[in-house]
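User: Hey, quick favor. My workstation is busy. Could you predict this chain's structure for me?
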Amino acid sequence: MSLSGRERRILAEIERALEREDPELARRVAAINRIESGGDVFPRACNDRFRMWALAHVWVIFSVGALVIVLLLLAVLTT
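Assistant: No problem, here it is.
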């Protein structure tokens, strides 16, 4: 069931009012709509945030990996 022209105008007016009153909420609603419509599988902000975290903590990630390898070698050599 499609919306009439009057209903579409009312919704557009509500959207414009929301954008004026709370732009952050309007941005989030638009992002949710893009995700649900299949336009954005992964939100870009989340992906960028993870990439920045990984770059900032790359030495920790490698250190933990090296520690795991050393402990595994130690366990194998002592058995």
